[in-house]
Amino acid sequence: xxxxxxxxxxxxxxxxxxxxxxxxxxxxxxxxxxxxxxxxxxxxxxxxxxxxxxxxxxxxxxxxxxxxxxxxxxxxxxxxxxxxxxxxxxxxxxxxxxxxxxxxx
Length: 105
Prior knowledge:
alpha+beta
């Protein structure tokens, strides 16, 4: 049994996603979404490696990662570090790319 399923960490993570209203989208089941989340070891926006230190209260891994999702559709988009997820850096990069493409015409 891996650390990520020990002590119910997996079920708590999935339960949190459901409470946030996240839907599966392209994933067939919650286990597939969780597997993508766990196996992603770098932020998909800034490429920083996620932390693996221990948390202070529950003893769980301090992953430093977030499942980014669209707040309109509730579909998962990327696995991001907490910094990118909270700073809208991901959205700003997409907007910049879109505007550069518009300027080509």
